[in-house]
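User: Hey, my collaborator sent me this sequence without any context and asked if I could get a structure. I don't really work with proteins. Can you help?
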Amino acid sequence: MMSSFALFVVVLLYLALLFVVAHLAEKKKSKLWINNPYIYALSLAVYCTAWTYYGSIGVAATSGLNYLPIYVGPIVIIPAWIFINTRIVRISRINKISSLADFISLRYGNSRSFSAVITIVCLLAIVPYIGLQIKAISETFHLVTKTPVSQNILTDNATFVVVLIALFSSYYGTRYVDASEKRLGIISAIALESFLKLFFIIILGLFVIYFAFDGFSDIYEKASKFEDFKQKNTFNGIEGALNWMILCIISATAICILPRQFHTAIVENRQEKHIKTAIWFFPLYLLIFTIFIFPIAWGGRLLFNGQNVNPEFYSILIPQYFDNTLITVFVFLGGLSSCISMIIISAITLSIMLSNNLIIPYGLLGKFKSENEIQNTRSITNIRKISIFALIIMAFAFYKYFILKTSLDSVGLISFVVIAQLAPAFFGALFWRRGTYKGAVVGLLAGLAICYFGLIIPQYYFSYNQEFKGVLREMYTLFDFFKIPYLSKIPEIFFWSILVNTGLFTTISVSVKGNYRERNFAELYVDVDKYIQNHENAFIWRGTAYVSDIKNILERFLGKKKTEQALRIFNLKYNIDSQTETADSRFIKFSENLLAGRIGTASAKILIEGVTKEDKISLKEVLNILEESKENITLNKKLTEKSKELKQLSEELTVANESLIIKDRQKDDFLDSVAHELRTPITAIRSAGEILADDDDIPADIKREFLNNIITESDRLSEIINDILYLDKLEHGEIALTIKKNDITETYRKALNPILHLIQQKDIQVSETNLLTESVFEYDEARMIQLFQNILGNALKFADEQGEIQTRFLKNENALNITIFNTGKPIPEDDLEMIFNKFYQSKNQNILKPTGSGLGLAISKQIIEAHGGIIYAENKSSGVIFTISLPENIYKKDEVEQY
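Assistant: No problem. I've predicted the 3D structure and written it out in structure-token form, which is a compact way to encode the shape of the chain:
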């Protein structure tokens, strides 16, 4: 058993770890934190709360397969995120959306009242859910320490844990006044928690499977002896399957619409490509969680069969049963991670909605108009800090007085059903242009009424007012007509509420036309990809507005410096004169976006409306303007594409021109080199010939020496000409290869022996390493000898005195690799790819003009490419290495090789 003080110290250390991680992430802002798709994917696991860590184990033990929908629903819907979430991220980015309430209300005309209704719905759904996490923290704390739950909240250790979480959340959750900014510290801490809770559940699962029992099969074999085992682990016909399917739909809806999921998946998304990682990583994460639920649940039933224990806490009770304090604490920390991450993100998102959609628009806008940027920033930050702290304390009170005796599973599902009432308006915003504000509001309120009458009142009111339970039960019998016999309570209420909600939403939307602002945003949402580059152009506004008036409003929230910087960017983007006095629709939208992150889209609209005079526009005019806007955007796209094509063509022409200049220069160098090489033997031949012609009395031995010089220089002249002609034939495929089986090491030695005495004269060491098991390969031996001599001759020319030439033979996959290394001066990096060009000679070899025509390496490249291989050079620390790769099987042709 662990003492309360010791466990409280562990909690303090854990919270300190989260604080350090958040602080380092905010301070360093390294790529590890900022552009890491796995940090993003792990942050999505805020979905896994106390319900998944404790509640699903209790469901698996008591209700069988009903624990799976909480995981299966998200796994099924998450692949669609590549389409759905990508669109939502784009919409949110161009409109500076910072919350779920802003996203939905903006689509339906940016209505202040609708954003307030959505905020209230989220509060009523999520505050009990936060209370659920606090309940789990409190009960597991007392379970680990084996102490009773104190009725006095001032002496209850769980109270202090909750206060610490509230302080941490209010501090790090309000570091940015712009709610659409990315909270790197918080998200990094949440990602760490997500990793730890998975790690700890894996440890517990392995402990149960391989320590408490003799493997998974042992648990299954023993558990199958329970009378209800088969019933709990099958769908039990059509009735069970329908309930299971509806629970999957509820959880699939929740993963998209829960405020905390919207915040982590949309608001905190830094790059759209991170979604691609999330759509496989997050389902894998949930799948690993799912694997261990079954053995923990049924292992707990086997160990505690007949005992009066709460199956939701089998994960704590099992290691306690075996007196394993370490794993008990690990599991407690895993559950604590699940709870803390949900509490922090939910409190932050609710505080943003509460401040931007209720407190500011319905109470403080007038005050903000008269204060400066510093005062307004402080006020907004303080509102959110107090909101976060108050929400967590409110949830704590809700836990103490309403859900103390309620299961984790039921509270979580009820919250999911309530928040699902936003689904028709949410998905309608994305895919349906005809959806209207009136239809969305009426449908939402009707769905909520069904939820509260069918779920909320029976769940919470009955638990608090037992004496009126019978009276209310009699009232509920009047509605038995709507009862569906084969659905349990939660699926039944979800079915009716969503049916009525969606029905009213669609019926009213097709019957009543929305205003021009609704239709404007409908187009921007549904066709976001068309407007993403010029979204300000697609915003329709007509009236009278002055830049100076709007600028004054902006300065009260952004400050003078940031406002001027923003205006400068806007003017550059649209090529507008900075002295322009009147504002157009683009500037109106731009200004609303600047304010939206700080005070919400609805409040931003109200402030801008206060200093402008807007003219009414008919729906027909809106559609005409949008059509023209579409045509302009399409035309702009075509012009942009043409411009890109012309730019690319221009770049290609520039590159080609530079290449021609280089080739021309190389040609001149080549001709100069060849002329020099041809002139040298010709001059020597002429000089010797003139001496022999002018002096008849020259001694015989001197005459013989001159004649030998003439023969030698003639041979050299012939060799140069032959090299030029040979390279030309190689390039045009006029030399046929004679492919035969030969010993590569013998071929190499045939090439080495004629020049070995020259190598020895420079006191160069020659070594050979043969790593081949079989040295016979197919190639043209004469050509390979020529290639080796060219490379070795090059090595001889540039190797240091008393240097070294090393050759290695190695078979790698389906190719023969030969490397020839020589010590000496490295090749300039810029020259490495050019040394095999026929016109090339390095300008960095020596001060003196290098000997040779620059054809040896070019010939070598043509020879090896004729064999289907490759050759390249690399610099090493002490010299240069040439690598020759020859394919094992060379395609043999009877006719001339074409390459």
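In plain terms: The CA atoms of residues 597 and 814 lie 60 Å apart. You can pass these tokens on to your collaborator as they are.
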